[in-house]
């Protein structure tokens, strides 16, 4: 036995088997293995945030130096915009009061009224084409907790779909981005009775920042430029989140029509995101039946 | 008397300052390179690929400083990779899960490979370090694509589709180019401000009997 442990190849094989066992255990649903990394995260997360913050400041200072003239010009334009917008805000305040009155009178629902919105900054992004999960700075301590096969939609500052939360830790969460080949969402053309389709990530389209569109009925005419939003079917994502626009459509096989979609979200330039958490079922039991389900048919 | 595999090897002692310097520099480089890669991938990317600073660091450490240092650094960097940017895989229930251990396994394998090829009877030189990096990158990419193809096929039934051009040019060659570019600054860092002076691990030097006939091939 001692002879075995003195052999470096035996030790290497042992470590390799141990790591493979960890990978397999980690793929089991609700595996507790991830908790093993919690102490490491407690140390590494602040350091990473510090380095990211420092890099961001250097970037900002550099931009301030190089973009000085452009910033001054933009500043003048923005001041004009602010003055104009302030005038519009004053006008709209009265409209808001009227809308609230009508909303109560006619029971109008806001698009995402059954969702609590959590803001979070992006902590880290992909390390290579496979290590591609996005880490965001909101976790269990902020009230984000995944149960069972539940998941939450994640959108950017313009409410465009970014992806969905697949794991929550104490202070951070992991987001599966829309371009990942494991991501799927039911979508529809953004018009009355728009055609329902399936949008998913694709390994070969990912590098071009495109998604694959399937499930297109042969009678549906899909055209480049059509806007696609979430359909709300499946229950994971609320209805009406903008996903992107159709880039191209391939009708060569009528039984298997495919298209490509360019997401609105700019994953490469992502700094802040919002997580949409549905209110508890008791609170919304009398409202939309498709908005808060948890069945995970969209992966 | 010890059997040959347990034979006592004379080890050149490092001073306390050198040992502290070694651990401090390893810690700084591990955290710095890992954090830069996951914090600013947009600044390191080309054609959808990202210069893999962690990977290049592990290859160079393993190549120049030997198997033990390589394995330890590979595992630490791999665990951090899993913490910061884990890969999402199809779990056993068909749902996508964030995995644990793939980064550690991959960089452990890379460290064993880098410490084991072009080091036996070959002096550790710049050209062979570069060659090791090229071979390690090619192996990593081809194994990675192969394993993901098989895993996806088994657990989700769908295909991991990539054309030959996408596989070779967009993925493998682009990654190779970026890693070779990243090799130069990391090499300079280790050469002039590395954990060991002049890229030489004293333990390794003693073990391999450098300066004897054991090493014959140099560039």
Strand and helix map with partners:
The complex is a heterodimer of chains A (299) and B (219).
Chain A: H1 2-5, H2 8-26, H3 38-66, H4 68-106, E1 115-124, E2 134-136, E3 153-155, E4 161-168, E5 173-177, E6 184-189, E7 196-200, E8 211-214, E9 227-230, E10 242-250, E11 258-263, E12 272-278, H5 281-284
Antiparallel strand pairs in A: 1-2, 1-12, 2-5, 3-4, 3-12, 4-5, 6-7, 6-9, 7-8, 8-11, 9-10, 10-11
Chain B: H1 16-39, E1 45-46, E2 49-50, H2 53-65, H3 67-85, E3 88-90, E4 96-98, H4 102-116, H5 126-156, H6 164-193, H7 202-208
Antiparallel strand pairs in B: 1-2, 3-4
Helix pairs in contact in B: 1-3, 2-3, 2-4, 2-5, 2-6, 3-4, 4-5, 5-6
Structure commentary:
The complex is a heterodimer of chains A (299) and B (219). Helix content of chain A is 32%, strand content 23%. Chain A is of the alpha+beta class. Chain A folds into 4 domains: 2-52, no CATH class; 67-106; 115-180 and 271-284, Rod shape-determining protein MreC, domain 1 (Thrombin, subunit H), CATH 2.40.10; 184-267, Thrombin, subunit H, CATH 2.40.10.350. In chain A, the strands form 2 sheets. Chain A has a 6-stranded antiparallel barrel with strand order 1-2-5-4-3-12. The longest helix of chain A is centred in the first third of the chain and has 39 residues, at 68-106. The termini of chain A are far apart. Mean pLDDT of chain A is 83; it is low at 283-299. Chain B is mostly helical and 219 residues long. Chain B has a single domain (15-35, 48-199), classed as Arp2/3 complex 21 kDa subunit ARPC3 (Orthogonal Bundle). Chain B has 7 helices and 4 strands; from the N terminus they run H-E-E-H-H-E-E-H-H-H-H. Chain B has helices at residues 16-39, 53-65, 67-85, 102-116, 126-156, 164-193, 202-208, and strands at 45-46, 49-50, 88-90, 96-98. Chain B has a two-stranded antiparallel ribbon with strand order 1-2. In chain B, helix 2 runs parallel beside helix 4, helix 2 packs across helix 5 (126-156) and helix 2 (53-65) packs across helix 6. Chain B is globular, with a radius of gyration of 19 Å. Chain B starts with 15 loop residues before the first helix and ends in an 11-residue tail after the last helix. The model of chain B is unreliable at 211-219 (pLDDT under 50). Classes of the chains: A alpha+beta (299), B mainly alpha (219). At the A-B interface, helix 2 and helix 3 of A face helix 1, strand 2, helix 3, strand 3 and strand 4 of B.
């Amino acid at each position: 036995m001692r002879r075995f442990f003195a052999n470096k190849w035996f030790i290497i094989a042992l470590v390799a088997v141990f790591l493979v066992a960890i990978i397999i255990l980690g793929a089991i649903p609700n595996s507790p293995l991830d908790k093993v990394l919690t102490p490491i995260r407690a140390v590494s997360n602040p350091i990473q945030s510090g380095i990211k913050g420092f890099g961001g400041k250097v970037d900002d200072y550099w931009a301030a130096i190089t973009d000085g003239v452009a910033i001054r010009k933009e500043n003048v334009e923005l001041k004009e915009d602010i003055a104009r917008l302030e005038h519009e805000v004053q006008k709209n305040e009265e409209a808001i009061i009227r809308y609230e009155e009508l909303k109560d009178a006619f029971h109008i629902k806001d698009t995402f009224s059954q969702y609590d919105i959590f803001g979070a900054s992006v902590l880290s992004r992909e390390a290579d084409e496979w290590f591609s999960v996005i880490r965001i700075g909101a976790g269990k301590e902020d009230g984000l907790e995944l149960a069972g096969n539940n998941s939450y939609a994640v959108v950017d500052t313009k409410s465009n779909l970014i992806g969905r939360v697949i794991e929550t830790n104490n202070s951070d969460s992991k987001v599966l981005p829309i371009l990942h080949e494991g991501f799927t969402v039911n979508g529809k053309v953004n018009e009355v009775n728009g055609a329902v389709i399936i949008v998913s990530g694709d390994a070969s389209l990912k590098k071009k920042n495109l998604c694959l569109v399937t499930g297109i009925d042969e009678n549906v005419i899909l055209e480049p430029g059509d806007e696609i939003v979430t359909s709300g079917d499946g229950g994971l994502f609320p209805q009406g989140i903008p996903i992107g626009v159709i880039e191209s459509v391939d009708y060569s096989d009528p039984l298997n029509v495919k298209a490509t979609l360019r997401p609105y979200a700019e994953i490469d330039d992502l700094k802040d995101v919002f997580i949409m958490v549905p209110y508890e079922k008791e609170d919304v039991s009398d409202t939309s039946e498709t908005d808060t389900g948890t069945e995970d048919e969209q992966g | 008397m010890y059997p040959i595999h347990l034979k006592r090897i004379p080890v050149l002692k490092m001073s306390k300052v050198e040992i502290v310097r070694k651990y401090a520099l390893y810690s700084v480089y591990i955290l710095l390179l890992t954090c830069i890669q996951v914090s600013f991938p947009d600044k390191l990317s080309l054609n959808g690929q990202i210069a893999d600073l962690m990977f290049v660091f592990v290859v160079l450490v393993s190549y120049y400083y030997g198997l033990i240092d390589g394995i330890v650094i590979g595992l630490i960097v791999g665990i951090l990779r899993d913490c910061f940017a884990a890969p999402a895989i199809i779990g056993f229930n068909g749902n996508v899960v964030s995995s644990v251990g793939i980064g550690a396994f991959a960089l452990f394998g890379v460290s064993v490979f880098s410490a084991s090829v072009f080091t036996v009877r070959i002096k550790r030189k710049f050209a062979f370090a570069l060659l090791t990096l090229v071979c390690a990158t090619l192996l990593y990419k081809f194994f990675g694509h192969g394993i993901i193809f098989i895993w996806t096929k088994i657990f989700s039934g769908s295909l991991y589709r990539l054309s030959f051009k996408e596989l070779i040019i967009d993925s493998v060659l682009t990654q190779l180019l970026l890693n070779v570019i990243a090799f130069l600054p990391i090499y300079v860092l280790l050469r002039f401000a590395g954990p060991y002076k002049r890229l030489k691990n004293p333990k390794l030097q003693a073990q391999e009997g450098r300066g004897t006939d054991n090493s014959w091939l140099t560039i």
